[in-house]
Design goal:
The protein is of the alpha+beta class. The chain folds into two domains: 2-201, no CATH class; 216-340, no CATH class. The protein has helices spanning 9-17, 94-107, 114-122, 169-177, 188-201, 219-223, 228-232, 240-244, 288-306, 318-322, 329-336, and strands spanning 2-5, 21-27, 33-37, 62-71, 74-78, 87-92, 123-128, 153-158, 161-166, 183-184, 251-257, 262-268. Strand 4 (62-71) and strand 5 form a beta hairpin. Keywords: Iron, Iron-sulfur, Metal-binding.
Length: 341
């Protein structure tokens, strides 16, 4: 384990940014934290988490796929991608760090999504352990330890120092680049922090939330539950839950006529929208109840059924905090528990 004095944090960021792009959580004028590219004077946010997840770095909200230029009967196909520059994302919390493994199962399975793959290969994740979990957090329900998050490097901020542990070759290379600012140390301070935060986690309102009743084995019982109509009745279909979710991976592909060619791009989509999955013959999910059901069935039943029991949620709490009608996966799961028996 290595230690950095917080007084040298600015120098650490400067050393990292000198070799590759660096992104970290920064607060805006309204106090909302978002990942921004580091620039001299940027201050690391003290917020528990960012409003939008770190998913954007690997699966951006909009992305150019291919361009076409038409000259008479000739069509020129242009790949708009340039060589992806190496980058570091600093301050990723445990929930978002776990979300990458879920996205990997989707985008790195055959056929591999090369756009996503390139970003994953060029990105280095520095995760930051949580010290002040909020009442909306329930990541431990999915086996995530926010006191020791995944990442190429795991970091702990304690007292006047930042502690680092490299977990991958990319992480080792990053710490080697800043070796002159670091010093070897023991893990006593980190273990003390972990014990303190673990005690807080046990007292959170959602500490007892469990998904053990769900999974592919209850597909029919949950799908046919009569409770979906009542649960979905107030849903606005706004898609907020899907846009702040770190694991949602649905997208649409569109073509735009630029006047001198065609630009094909993809953008995030939401299963909560009325035109989601619309095909030539129409839409297989005509009601909000069916669309609402699709979202939560995917998280709690379909995904674990196809991924060795891993759920499509990481308990980040963003949907609890942002839904305008206060509907979320915890309420849905608890309402449906009786139908899983």
């Amino acid at each position: 384990m290595q230690k950095l004095a917080l007084a040298n944090l600015g120098r650490f960021f400067e050393a990292v940014a000198a070799r590759q792009a660096l992104y970290l959580p920064v607060e805006d004028a309204g106090g909302q934290a978002s990942f921004q590219r580091w620039a001299p004077g940027a201050k690391l946010s003290g917020a528990l988490n960012t409003t939008r997840s770190a998913k954007d770095f690997f699966f951006p909200q909009t992305e150019d796929l291919v361009n076409f230029k038409v000259r008479g009967k000739e069509i020129e196909i242009i790949d708009p991608r340039t060589e992806q520059e190496p980058f570091v994302v600093f301050g990723v919390r445990g929930c978002d760090a776990r979300s990458f493994s879920i996205l990997d199962k989707v985008f790195l399975a055959d056929p591999v999504d090369t756009y996503y793959q390139s970003r994953r290969e060029h990105g280095t994740i520095v995760s930051l352990a949580c010290t002040r979990p909020e009442e909306t957090c329930f990541c431990t329900s999915f086996g995530i330890d926010p006191t020791c998050p995944q990442g190429d490097v795991t970091a702990w901020m304690e007292g006047d120092a930042l502690y680092f542990a490299a977990n991958t070759p990319k992480g080792e290379a990053l710490l080697a680049q800043t070796a002159e600012l670091l010093e070897a140390c023991g893990d006593e301070a980190v273990r003390a922090q972990q014990e303190r935060v673990s005690a807080i986690l046990e007292k959170l309102p959602l500490a007892g939330f469990s998904t053990q009743s769900f999974g592919g084995q209850v597909l029919i019982q949950v799908f046919e539950s009569e409770k979906w109509a009542g649960l979905s009745q107030s849903c606005l279909g706004c898609g907020t839950c899907t846009f702040v979710c770190p694991t949602c991976q649905c997208y649409d592909i569109k073509d735009m006529d630029t006047g001198h060619g065609v630009q094909r791009f993809r953008c995030w989509d939401s299963c909560m929208y009325s035109d989601f999955t619309r095909m030539a013959h129409g839409n297989p999910r005509l009601t909000q109840k069916e669309r609402f059901r699709q979202r939560f069935m995917h998280k709690l039943v379909y995904f674990p059924a196809n991924n060795n029991g891993e759920y499509g949620c990481v308990g980040c709490g963003r949907c609890l905090a942002k839904c305008p009608i206060s509907m979320n996966i915890v309420k849905v799961a608890r309402a449906l528990e009786g139908d899983c028996k």
